[in-house]
Design goal:
Chain lengths: ~500, ~475
């Protein structure tokens, strides 16, 4: 292995000194993502990268990947770092490739309704650009507007709009990827070939950047809707609210987005902003399309909601909730930290799923809220979040909730989302005997384990010595179970919102 | 089915020759048309080793046993054969020690043609009797691969659901034909794969292995192997059941039928539809020839467009008016023309028999605006080869038309090759169009395609390490 000085010189020669960083501050910034990581994690992983590089072209990415053969440094690609599972965080230092300088929108083909973009383009910017051309993205990841196109593809993100327009897989037509050997490939065809025979794009969706670095994407876009409306309904209980969503999934309706926000979410929001509606269990429905269809569906939703015991809220409240659909985690300011547990659960078992989440929050004495969004008539993303303060001894134990919630989702016929540093123990539980095939995929693409290794099929530690170089996945799971147990025996509940109000703000 | 095997066979056969580009196409033609006069003896031998036995599958345990015998993990088998050891079993099948032997599913109906290289001396799995359907899980169904699409569609309709995908060319396909055959399942919203949640399979080790999640979609659960290999899944594993989404049934459904005088008008109308955010369940188009086969005795315009729509009884009339306004330029509109799918099973099968007599060469995918150009070229091709063309097509919300040209012609292999080549040449002149067929993929010698196929081949060899699921054949 070459020295770090040598690696640094080679990187600087390739990109120039202004696009290679190794300062302490930069390294710290890139050592975590949206999730709150306990300091103890530094004992297990080298979360600080050795170098941060900012390539501007696919060829530069390819050169950086090839340099890894000489330097022996692992590579971690990263978008905006809006993920929560450590997919964009190094586990053994190395070179962190920040893709945000590859942020050009390369072409928009209005006739064929496609847009070609570099992977570092933020969704918010892309949505604005597409709207300025009289078109619409239709589908936008939940982590938008800050998350990047490449980041969402790598995390296999759940999207706002997928109930109407299908999953992210349906949005992505073709990808350009730098493979671990430095070669540049396209995963399919820019013509719509229907994904037949030899289309590799699906492998990169949700791969956490472990198979290669996505540098460009061709995305489908939609016509601009004639009418957009949002409606919000308040329910007496979480169970009623969840059953309303179950009814929607079983009805012949095509809303753009349907979400559930529980009472606690508004308790947190109200602590931060006084202009938030009275805390209630609320369902948010967004409709897009032709005016006649939208109005017809709106009436059907009103009728369904009334039947389920819901009351329609004033239009301003619904518009405000819709406008804030991407800013779900403001409550982080109440507690300094927050952990999200994203899970896919069956759409006909939402009442059970939300009850399970509620019970877990209570049992683990956590301050948390429940967020749920329908993805398609069979599936919904249940993403409860909990507040945590990792400077307190009990703080990191809140991560046990993520494990327990994932287990509950599996029990209901669903699965947890995301692997990354934390969730690899779920792989076998999710895929059973197909798990070795996941290893086979990694082996075929990255036999030398250069790119973002140790995060999908095995958990690397910061060490390279045998035996302690990996953690058995079950041990990770056991650790999080222990964390959940510690939360259960904690004598007091977390009361972050109350504490925040008491001191009059941050 | 068989694409990796065919591709590997051709790749290996032309690995050495200096004139690879020339030899490659000549070899594909000779292998496809089985021209034994020009093929080397070794290749003829490989092409002549048809599967030695067919097993009618009634239970996936039988497949597991078979696979375990082939991979050497079980030395005897209870399949009506003498319980002898592994080598005796191979001997019975006529397989030498130096050759891999495996299993291959038998398609119920093939729209186009069989594969070039047969499963050498292996066992063909006939899933005709493996056809149960589970519709008890909310908005999802789990169908055994032998269940016919029509049976699943009817069973789901009875339970108040709708199978979201319909075959663009209405043949009597099984669900498995969508995985290992060439059944052109799709909806207006998306391709077949988008509706598939999971596959239940038997792996090369003889284990029941599930790809994907039966009850929910698989977002964020690691590598999406299911959708990456779905069109080739039977070369990696033996699929036994398919779990897919259902669409909630509508209170009222209607089929709208519009007749157009020419392709330009039909294309303009469909372009307007795709540029709107209307959501019909499916949109199909047939030219006069195809419409005549689907509905004999009913006079048809040059192009007939049919849409399946649903909604509340009250809202449907308004919706119909909106479609009328979108699909302008039609010469005639009818409300009483049945669609090919919501008819009794025996009527569906009779129509499928009629449709199946035509010769299909594959799928042409093009922007809807390119329809007139393609129709023109298909006509010219038909005249050139003396085979009257017709067209079955379906539209996607993306504005892509998935068209299946059919020819009134004998189904001899050289004829199929000639027409495939003709369609490929016609498509090459149309911007944005792609010819998707098994033989067109073998013709594709571009570095990008070769690289992707190489990756898939490596993946197959990793997943099917015991080499029992349609083993690759090297000449």
């Amino acid at each position: 292995m070459a020295s770090k000085d040598y690696a640094h010189r080679r990187l600087v020669n390739t990109l120039g000194p202004e696009r290679v960083a190794q300062g302490e501050l930069e390294r710290m910034v890139y050592s975590h993502d949206f999730a709150s990581l306990p300091k103890a994690a530094l004992l297990q992983w080298r979360l600080y990268p050795d170098f941060i590089v900012l390539p501007q072209t696919t060829e530069e990415v390819s050169t950086i990947v090839k340099l890894s053969d000489e330097s022996g440094l692992p590579i971690t690609p990263r978008g905006s770092g809006t993920g929560s599972y450590g997919g964009a965080v190094p586990n053994r230092g190395g070179v962190l490739v920040d893709m945000r300088k590859m942020n050009k929108i390369l072409a928009l083909d209005a006739a064929n309704r496609t847009v070609t973009v570099e992977a570092g383009v933020p969704w918010g910017h892309l949505a604005e650009y597409v709207a300025s051309k009289g078109l619409s993205l239709g589908l936008v990841p939940i982590a938008a507007p800050a998350s990047t196109v490449g980041g969402a593809i790598n995390s296999g993100a759940a999207c706002v709009g997928s109930y109407r327009f299908g999953s992210l897989r349906n949005l992505v037509l073709d990808l350009e990827v730098v493979l671990p050997d430095g070669s540049i490939v396209r995963t399919g065809s820019t013509n719509d070939a229907g994904g037949r025979f030899a289309d590799l794009k699906s492998l990169f969706l949700g791969s956490e950047g472990t198979l290669g670095i996505v540098t460009k994407a061709v995305l489908r876009i939609q016509p601009e809707p004639e009418e957009s409306r949002a409606a919000a309904y308040a329910f007496r209980s979480l169970a009623e609210d969840a059953r309303f969503l179950e009814t929607i999934a079983g009805a012949d309706l095509a809303p753009l987005h349907v979400a559930l926000l529980d009472r606690n979410h508004f308790v947190f929001e109200r602590a931060l902003r006084p202009d938030v509606p009275e805390p209630m269990d609320i369902a948010l429905v967004a409709l897009q399309g032709h005016k006649d269809e939208v109005l017809e569906q709106e009436k059907e939703f009103d009728a369904l909601a009334a039947k389920a015991g819901g009351t329609r809220l004033p239009g301003n409240d619904a518009s405000d909730l819709w406008a804030r659909r991407f800013t779900m985690y403001g409550a982080r300011r109440l507690s300094r930290g927050l952990a999200v547990s994203s899970n896919v659960v069956p759409a006909d078992r939402l009442a059970e799923a939300t009850a399970e989440a509620h019970t877990l929050l209570r049992k683990l004495k956590l301050d948390g809220a429940i967020h749920l969004a329908l993805q398609d008539p069979t599936s919904a993303v249940l993403a409860p979040y909990v507040l945590m303060d990792d400077t307190r001894p009990s703080g990191p134990a809140a991560l046990g909730f993520v494990k327990k919630m994932g287990d509950a989702a599996r029990g209901l016929g669903g699965h947890p989302m995301g692997l990354g540093l934390f969730m690899v123990f779920n792989l076998y539980k999710m895929h059973g005997r197909a798990t070795p095939f996941m290893g086979a995929v990694k082996q075929v693409f990255d036999p030398k384990k250069k790119i973002n290794a140790g995060k999908t099929t095995e958990v690397w530690t910061r060490f390279t010595w045998p035996i302690i170089d990996t953690i058995p996945p079950f041990a990770m799971g056991l650790g999080l179970d222990l964390a959940a147990f510690l939360r259960r025996i904690k004598p007091t509940r977390d009361r972050f919102a109350r504490a925040y109000r008491r001191v009059g703000g941050a | 089915m068989g694409l990796l095997r065919d591709w590997t066979f051709i790749e290996e056969a032309v690995r050495i020759p200096a004139l690879r580009e020339v030899v490659r196409e000549a070899l594909i033609k000779a292998v496809f048309t089985r021209d034994d006069r020009v093929l080397p003896r070794g290749i003829i031998a490989d092409l002549s080793r048809a599967p030695a036995a067919t097993v009618k599958v009634k239970d996936d345990a039988e497949i597991r046993k078979l696979v375990q015998v082939f991979n050497g993990s079980e030395s005897s088998v209870n399949l009506g054969l003498a319980p002898e050891d592994y080598h005796y079993f191979r001997k019975e099948l006529g397989v030498g020690k130096d050759r891999d032997v495996g299993v291959v599913p038998k398609p119920r109906v093939l729209l186009t043609y069989d594969w070039l290289v047969p499963e050498p001396r292996g066992v063909q799995l006939d899933f005709g009797a493996y056809r149960a359907v589970d519709l008890d899980g909310g908005q999802r169904a789990i169908a055994q691969v032998g269940a016919t699409w029509k049976d699943v569609y009817d069973a789901a309709s009875e339970k108040g659901h709708l199978v979201p995908f319909v075959p663009t060319v209405p043949l009597d396909f099984s669900i498995g034909d969508g995985v290992w055959g060439d059944a052109p399942y799709a909806s207006y919203r998306a391709e077949f794969a988008e509706d598939v949640n999971a596959l239940r399979t038997v792996s090369a080790y003889g284990h029941r292995t599930r790809l994907g999640f039966e009850e929910v979609s698989g977002e964020g659960a690691g590598y999406d192997l299911l959708h990456a290999i779905l069109p080739l899944a039977d070369e990696f594993l033996v699929p036994t059941e398919v779990a897919f989404r259902l669409v909630p049934g509508s209170a009222a459904r209607r089929t709208l039928t519009y007749g157009y005088e020419d392709a330009a008008k039909a294309s303009a109308a469909l372009d307007k539809l795709a540029g709107s955010l209307r959501t019909p369940h499916w949109v199909h188009m047939a030219d006069a020839g195809a419409a005549g086969v689907l509905r004999p005795g009913v006079a048809a315009e040059a192009f007939t467009v049919q849409l399946g729509i649903g909604g509340t009884a009250a809202g449907l009339a308004a919706r119909e008016k909106a479609y009328d306004a979108l699909l302008t330029g039609y010469k005639a509109k009818a409300a009483d023309v049945p669609n090919p799918f919501d008819v009794p099973a025996d009527v569906y099968r009779k129509a499928a028999d009629r449709v199946g007599r035509s010769l299909f060469v594959g799928e042409v995918r093009m922007p809807i605006k390119a329809l007139p150009a393609f129709v023109e070229r298909a006509k010219a091709l038909g005249q050139h080869v003396s085979a009257r063309p017709s067209l079955y097509a379906s539209l996607r919300s993306s504005g892509t038309l998935s068209a299946f040209p059919a020819f009134e012609s004998s189904k001899e292999r050289h004829r199929v090759y000639e027409l495939s080549k003709g369609v490929a040449n016609a498509v090459a002149e149309i911007p944005g169009a792609t010819f998707v067929s098994r033989i067109a993929h073998l013709w594709d010698d571009s570095p990008g395609f070769r690289r992707r196929m190489e990756i898939l081949r490596k993946l197959k060899l990793e997943i099917d390490a015991p080499r029992v699921i349609q083993p690759l054949v090297v000449p």
